[in-house]
Amino acid sequence: MAIPVPTRQLFINGEWREPVLKNRIPIINPSTEEIIGDIPAATSEDVEIAVEAAHKAFSRNKGRDWAFTSGAVRAKYLRAIAAKITEKKAEIARLEALDCGKPLDEAAWDIDDVAGCFEYYADLAEGLDAKQNEPVSLPMETFKSYVLREPLGVVALITPWNYPMLMATWKVAPALAAGCTAILKPSEIASVTCLELAEVCREVGLPPGVLNVLTGLGSEAGAPLAAHPHVDKIAFTGSTATGSRIMASAAKMVKPVSMELGGKSPIVVFEDVDLDKAAEWTAFGCFWTNGQICSATSRLLVHESIATEFLDRLVKWCKNIKISDPFEEGCRLGPVVSGSQYEKILKFISTAKSEGATILSGGDRPKHLNKGFFIEPTIITDVNTSMQIWREEVFGPVLCVKTFSTEEEAIELANDTQYGLGAAVISNDLERCDRVSKAFRAGIVWINCSQPCFCQAPWGGIKRSGFGRELGKWGLDNYLSVKQVTRYISDEPWGWYQSPSKL
């Protein structure tokens, strides 16, 4: 049964607005390769209108309408958004699966997380009220000092296509909780549910201009948004190459940025594991979200003493993964998001083979699917550290494998990457897990699992995986400025200069 995709315009100043140039971008269903609708294509002209709306919303009524109202007031809107998303969960999940190809069960899980994230930041918004005027201990009794936590201003939120609504929420929820006003620019490859988020905000009566949503190409909408002089901060999730360009643009105005970029994360499997448990987590860590996740543990390091048996078990697990249209019951691997991504991933696999690696399992289109951007879960062995497949992010369902003999070698191989987002270790020796966790050069570590994510815990990386942290209280801090206020409380003159009256 065909699922209708709502026809939406840009969302600016609380209203749907046609793009100035009236251009639109087709939506392609990655399961069927058919055009199923379109989205508006914003350009720099629309960016100007949206930034002005956000700027006016921030300063309206001297900020008392949003930016400097109580956190409790903002929390009411965030909870209303969460409730409305929960009410529309089934509809939004279907649109998410249709637009980006993730299994419907996974999309529904994402929408639960969206609602939970808005609820969580509603709580933190309320908590901000108690933290205002926090005293600072000083060494001089003639002064009193306190701290104010204030919103940064107008923020640009640029988000990716692998978790369209959830990644947007990771930025929108804390930005609004802090009192910022925002322009969200989702990826043009998967924007449908971000426009539905705009509709939710309209339905709950979010004040005009507090959240604006611009869909469009990165070069035509994202770039002018990042470079706009009246945008006070940029938060970006996406490729390292694009992040670098955004940083360069922001640097010209000394504009703060936070970056969640690429990854090539390791999963280290020691010899003392339950093979089936370790195999399932290894598969999940790389093939969840159709392999399209920046934190994917896509480099498997397995102890040489169990490598043959473990890989045999892992292949059996992967061959048992149901690959199908996302709406089929039990689907656990859908298509990758687009034709260009499909070709890019197959090129990675082809290059690995030409460089001397072995395609142990997968590596092609599933035989039972003759259309759609489907790729089998792929396991590549005989990999060395100079190969492209070891060094570069694939962003698809592809796992490369190396063996190790000692804990020290495993750590060295795990850290042999320009990235530093996630890392996982699987072992029954918890002391060893603790040692390895501390030795990993990464922002996120998983022990005896891979990829769990909770909105209460910090998320972000080091090295070329970016900087700054999303989620948890750290995510809120991304959108706050700390202001020091110090008062002289003595009745006595300061006395540093000689008073003219005493000359």
Molecular structure report:
This protein is α/β, with parallel strands linked by helices and 503 residues long. The chain is 38% helix and 19% strand. The strands form five sheets. Strands 14-15-16-13-12-17-18 form a seven-stranded mixed sheet, sandwiched between helices. Strands 9-8-7-10-11-19 form a six-stranded mixed sheet, with helices on both faces. A three-stranded antiparallel sheet has the order 5-6-20. Helix 2 packs across helix 6 and helix 9 packs across helix 10. The N and C termini lie far apart (93 Å). The model has no long low-confidence stretch (mean pLDDT 97).
Write a compact overview of the structure shown.
The protein is of the alpha/beta class.
Distance from first to last alpha carbon: 93 Å
Total helical elements: 15
Radius of gyration: 25 Å
Largest sheet data: 7 strands, mixed
| Beta-strand percentage range | 15-25%
The dominant shape is globular
Write the layout of secondary structure elements.
Layout: E1 10-12, E2 15-17, E3 24-29, E4 34-40, H1 44-59, H2 71-87, H3 89-100, H4 104-131, E5 134-136, E6 143-151, E7 154-158, H5 164-178, E8 181-185, H6 192-203, E9 211-213, H7 218-226, E10 233-237, H8 240-251, E11 257-260, E12 266-269, H9 275-287, E13 299-303, H10 307-319, H11 339-354, E14 358-361, E15 378-381, H12 388-391, E16 398-404, H13 407-414, E17 422-426, H14 430-439, E18 444-447, E19 466-467, H15 472-477, E20 480-488
Parallel strand pairs: 7-8, 7-10, 8-9, 10-11, 12-13, 12-17, 13-16, 15-16, 17-18
Antiparallel strand pairs: 1-2, 3-4, 5-6, 6-20, 11-19, 14-15
